[in-house]
Amino acid sequence: MSGTFVGMPAFPKAAHDAVRNTTLRANLKHATHTIRDKRARAVAELDDWALLREAGKQIKDHTLRHLDTYLVQLEEAVTAAGGIVHWASDADEANRIVTRLVKETGESEVVKVKSMATQEIGLNEALEEAGIAAYETDLAELIVQLGHDRPSHILVPAIHRNRGEIRDIFTKEMGQWGRPAPEGLTDTPAELAEAARLHLREKFLRAKVGISGANFMVAATGTLVVVESEGNGRMCLTLPETLISVVGIEKIIPTWRDLEVFLQTLPRSSTAERMNPYTSMWTGTTDTDGPQAFHLVLIDNGRTDTLADEVGRQALRCIRCSACLNVCPVYERAGGHAYGSVYPGPIGAILSPQLRGTASEIDASLPYASSLCGACYEVCPVAIDIPEVLVHLREKVADQGGPGHRMEKAAIKAAGWVLDHPGALAAGERVASRTRKLHPKKLPGPGAGQWTNSRDLPQMPAEPFRDWWKKNRT
Ligand code: SF4
């Protein structure tokens, strides 16, 4: 993955700071509770939701098992339809390809459809270095870009901002990027949307190059699919002369029939809609209609490594609906920035450490950013067992060592020895019971001390259980 979020502190520190921001917490609580309630109602409308969920899981698992076959099929279909397929093993290679393609058009600006993949590889920053301006056109992404901010939610990247903050950002920043915000702009949603519409419209009409991601790629026909709510995606996908789509290799599905399943589960899980307002599909190029050049950049960037992990690979089923974020008690309090990745929340806690590896402090901390309550698994429309993967990744992190884990390992080893020697255990229990008045309420040291900052150590009983048992039951 890219270095977009490098420099962020590990999750415990970032979350510690974030929970003290009362505005952020209020914004998040309001937004996540509203979306989660609406989602629950939208899902309850379908009698066959459980079957759809199982079908989605099986389609994704089948496709991942035969990814090599379907990718080749997709490439052949895209090429036959007039597109050009490029393969990128990592973020740098993908950025180099896209930068070259834009430069070849002679243009120095592009319009973008909201795309997690391009955020993952840090494409905007790479284009900027090459002197190419990338304009985000999704409303929430526009707010993030104008605010020199980072996205904090998969579906609603500016979820941490309220209306007043958005009005201030528009008023201050829009003029630096193009058409300024109207005089006397208020924070009513209609006025804010109109300001964004006017600002973006001139960019849509001027842009010769569009960059998108895709929610799905249909291998059988080489068709790409973007689902969205605002119509900005449709503008980016149809108006420019050149379209470049940057997509993770796991977004492939075999046939249109498979798409039918996800077009039912994705909108209900993400925006709680029966059907999203805009579903755009395109297959290569068409003479005199839409972009006349189409490039598909397929990125690996850690996905094949993830696929090799028998437990962790289920994370690649994710359709980025964000339902798991909206029900997560940790996300609700810490917010998306604390995860130090473009993928926040429960899915981020299992996806980022797999795509990026667990070598950095921040990635090693992510599998612990969960209470393991399981709410994420319950709502996931492709049944990703996020708690199972979290525990699996914790095991990996513990195996790789680190000061905290060395202490933990030593403690477990010592406990194992004591439990193996009943005489020593009984003697230790007696000593502990007799000295119980002297025991501290908190444990010393940074790791154990942190644990008892918010918990009291249980008091030792006056008499060890084994002694009591001997006296009363034998
Ligand atoms: S893990 Fe499941 S619930 Fe979370 S974003 Fe992905 S598909 Fe949606």
Automatic annotation (TrEMBL):
Domain Lactate utilization protein B C-terminal, residue spans: 394-472
Cross-referenced Pfam families: Fer4_8, LUD_dom, LutB_C
Keywords assigned by UniProt, alphabetized: 4Fe-4S, Electron transport, Iron, Iron-sulfur, Metal-binding, Repeat, Transport
Coiled coil: none
Highest rank taxon of the organism: Bacteria
Compositionally biased region (Basic residues): 433-442
Residue ranges occupied by any LUD domain in the UniProt entry: 73-299
Region described as Disordered: spans on this chain: 433-474
Domain 4Fe-4S ferredoxin-type: 315-384
Composition bias, Basic and acidic residues: 464-474
Designated name of the protein: LutB/LldF family L-lactate oxidation iron-sulfur protein
Organism for this UniProt entry: Streptomyces aureus
